[in-house]
Amino acid sequence: MKCQRNKFSLQRKISYLNGAYMSPLLKKVEKAGIKGMIKKRKPFHVAPSDFFRETEILRNLFGQLINSPELSRHVIIPSVSYGIENVVQNLEKKKGNIVLAAGQFPSNVYPWSANTHYQLKFVAAPTEVKNQCAAWNEHILAAIDDQTAAVSIGQVHWVNGTKYDLTSIRQKTRAVGAALIIDGTQSIGALPFDVQEVQPDALVVAGYKWLMGPYSIGMAYYGEMFDQGKPIENNWINRQGADQFSGLTHYQDNFLPGAQRYEVGEHSNFILVPMLIAAIKQLLKWTPLGIQQYCEVLCHEAIDILRSEGYTVQASEGRASHLFGVYFNENTTMERIEQALFKHRVKISVRDQALRISPNVYNDQKDVQRLVSALKEAII
Question: Does domain 29-285 have CATH number 3.40.640.10?
Answer without folding.
Answer: yes
